[in-house]
Amino acid sequence: MADRLLVRRRDMTTQSTQSVLINGFGVLFVILNSFGLGLRLPIGKMLAGAAAHWKIAVWALVINFVIIPLLFIGYLLTIASSIPGEIKVGFCVAALSAGMPFAPLIARLAKADVSIATTLLVVLTAATLIALPIGLPLAIDAVDANLKTSAWDVAWPLLLFLLLPVVLGCCFRLWWSDLTPELARWVVRVAILCLLFNLNFTLVAYWSQFVQTWGTASYIAALAGPFIGLGCGYLLVSTLRVKDVGVRHATEVTTAVRNIAPMLLMMIFPFAADPMVTVSITILNTIGLVIVVLFVLMWRHAASPSAATHATTSQPATEGLPTPRSPTGRHASHSEADGL
User: Hey, what domains does the chain have and what are their CATH numbers?
Assistant: First the structure.
């Protein structure tokens, strides 16, 4: 009997330590990522970009907070109706969390328009602060999950750990602009490290739940998430007839994957006692990011040959002919160089 009690206490201590590590690194990532966003946020350029591409911004809001949530909820009520209620809650959180934090980085990898990705990231993150507290309790009721939450339970972590660090980062950028670039680089690196620690500790602590979830078709449902986002992003740029490939890919990337920062806050605070919510959010984030990165690598690979082809076709038609000579008998290029 004493041995059993000792083992139980040891297990409880281990679980408590793992929870502290998971939650601690998760909150640190959100704070540092938000603060780093504020440090890198050129407010003037962002407002100019939003004004120049206001149609994309408006339609991105409609797609991310109307169409995608409706598609997610409809998917959970029909095709994925058999998955557990706690996992459905994680999907509802994802549906209302728009603005992937790594959108500018992934847009750069895809050779897309980084400024558009940054503008959409800020616009969608700001809208998430409003839409998530209002929409999440309604979405949870719609999918008949046996969990409840209130608007305030959802709102206060977003305001404290997401909005406040962004504001502080913007203030730091204004007051100590000379220190900002170097600090921003280190903040982003540490934030990514915290996210990796959070993911590793989550996998270790909830491995049995990940295995248990395998038999509930939740992984198949998670595969639908990024494809819904990519499809909606493609629909957006096609409807607006966006010709610039960089703008198209930046819009699609930003719409494809959900915002991990508010999702982490939801699994740490309102649903801390529900491990399957954590499992579903982790599955969604991991699968979604992997799929989008694969698409980005294909776009990058496709962009390189096209650039080379464009460079080749842009050569002058007189290629292979002798270089024209100036009246003085020298090459025209030489006379131009002499005049510089």
Answer: 14-300 (1.20.1530.20)
